[in-house]
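Supplementary Methods, section 5.1.

A reviewer requested that the exact input to the structure prediction be made available. We therefore reproduce it here, unchanged from the version used in the analyses.
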Amino acid sequence: MSSLIIGGGVSGYGAASYLTGMGQKVRLSERAKLSPDEARRFLDLGVELRDGGHHLSHLDGISQVIISPGVPSQHPVLLAARDRGLEVLSEIDLALRNSRARVIAVTGTNGKSTTCAMIGHLLSRLGHEVCVGGNFGDPPTLMLAEGRMKDFLVLELSSYQLEASAQVQAEAAIFTSFSHDHIARHGSLAAYFAAKWRLFSNLPNQSLAIIPEAIYLQAKSLGFSLKSSQHPPLTSVDYLKSLAPPSMEEAQNRLNAGFAVSAVAHLLGRPAAELTPYLADFHGLPHRCERIGYIRGQPVVNDSKSTNVESTLVALASQGGATILLMGGKGKDEPYGPILSERSKIAVLITFGASGGDIAKDLSGAFPIQEFSTLKAAMAQLGGIIGRYQCGVLFSPGCASFDEFRNYEQRGDFFRQAVMPLLDR
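The structure derived from this sequence is encoded token-by-token as follows.
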């Protein structure tokens, strides 16, 4: 069999590693011109590289097409592949077709990475071999290629991945949250929701669906439902929050803990409350409400993973008092007015980047605002601003990073490095 992989990112590399390891001929079609180092990774696998643009000729001699999450469903090469009767799989499809792991799948606008990490932590602490991947961590095909697939596979699935995949056969499926995001890709909020709901469209009988009640009601209003033969969904947010260990104070992390405990209890057939203590030593993820130090005894929090307004609201709600809030980057055409519901947690707002002006305009009049063209410019002046306010610092951009950085990790690393000289010793 000869396979064409569309997209040379991490998912494409994972798929290439697995397929070449199985002795298949693999061709890569990549829109951009790969750097020498990026190209070498694929060439070392024996991949035929076609970078610098997608062309229909890349389908010649191909029997199977593997698509990366960033490839839209109406891509001309995909349409041509389907017209030719070729099988089209996502990287997730390819992995699940060839894995015997028991699958727990998590989607949602916010909270899915932390929930996945909590599930992995729980299963490991309970003595089970588990791997966590997908949109968070390594692609599952890479785990297969490297012999790292374990008994349990915890998958974080983005709307892009779900849109491109067949029904994921998960024993437990979780929808953490839903808010305005990725409209440029999906076209509307309803279409974005539909992509997320694909996780629940055909779950196996007796699989557990864990869905906050507001999301479940939204699904019903849009005409989506669960199979009647499926395990009844867990929808009570209050119940889920009660499953968090007492030491976990943040409301969103308590909810994430409830998701994780409920899913693992279902898989292992154990009482949920019995599992809660195993999360007591869970540490949060980098760049997600990560406390990196203190300035004059007040916390400094790196929440670079915040790429939409809802995630910034969650971060603000977790603060013990007023804070210096840094927001900015490349916005997603959503209003910033909802931030005002947490105005008591904002002593001063610092905006930056491509959407900094829009943020300042939407939130003007509620608290002092200082605008900067870039995050780098803002961080150069942060020390002076901190000197005027006796409060903590919350870096929760509420926007994508792509106007100034490659990704939220690079943005968070920059914030951490820039603020380090200001921290208490």
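The CA atoms of residues 7 and 68 lie 5 Å apart. These observations are discussed further in the main text.
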